[in-house]
Amino acid sequence: MLYAIPSISAIAIKLVLLWRARQSLLITNQAFLAVFISLLALNISEMLLFTLNLKESGATILVMAHYIFGLFSILSVLGITLSITRQVFPIRTLATFGCLMAIFIAIPGLAIEGTKSIGYSYTRIQGPYYFVVQLALLVPFSASIGLLIHGALRSKSKEIKNKCSVLLICLTPSFVSLFIIVALMQFGFQINATVVISFSINILLFGLLYLEGKYHIYGLLSSLPGTKYNDSARILTQALFDPNMPLEKAKELMDIEKTRYTLELTRGNQSEAARILGVSRPTICRRIKLIESQYTKARKL
């Protein structure tokens, strides 16, 4: 029962997130809903494998279901990635591929020949075409990582870059875990990876929650040391809570940070930034000089 705790915690987290984001998931992005439902089914199947005393046939069905739900989870993540990066790709193609692979996995003797007990749970016995399932899991996951890296580094849209960065950070533990597990299996290690995957999935869900909120994403990015959002958060925190800082100095720091962000939003267009902020263009120019002065001082430290 101890091994089922990660699965139970992941199920609880999913139910809470589904309830909190129920309207936006149903209306704005059905790929989010698909990944939540797939991951929920994945955790339920692994929890049953931990807790039930099954015959070999029943365990085999649950293991196959576990792989199918895992596949749909990864394809749903790819769907979210395509949506975030605004890539034109028919989602029906992903759904069709998922259904065909589900049928392939469910056919006895092809990918999975059976199961065997490993004490606390059950693990699959590889069939002759198990490598097809491994590729079906790794290729879409790798494609998601590649698209997110490209979006985080090369996208001209600030919103897309931020969303790609957050999802990339939250997907990395799952990707690394999956890659290591598949590699170890190729060398003949008998591994039940459900506990590791359950914990890494919780990190992914945390990222999805932040993507769902309009401003949550900046809260997460500001907590990462070395990022400009972290620097801005540190400056604003000092301006708000340093009792020895005069009000005019605190206001100046806040004005500078607001101007910095607005200039990034307008891609350096000073006239547009002045219009958004409701100030004159000379005021923007003065604040730019202050921003450059701050940058010069920071480089000298």
From TrEMBL:
Q: Where is the DNA binding HTH domain?
A: 262-289
This protein's UniProt keywords: Membrane, Transmembrane, Transmembrane helix
Q: Does the keyword Ion transport apply?
A: no
Signal sequence range: none
Which molecular-function annotation in GO is an example for this chain? sequence-specific DNA binding
Domain of life of the source: Bacteria
Report the transmembrane regions from the record: 31-52, 58-82, 94-112, 132-153, 165-185, 191-211
- Is the DNA-binding keyword given for this protein? no
Q: What is this protein called?
A: Helix-turn-helix, Fis-type
Species source reads Saccharophagus degradans (strain 2-40 / ATCC 43961 / DSM 17024)
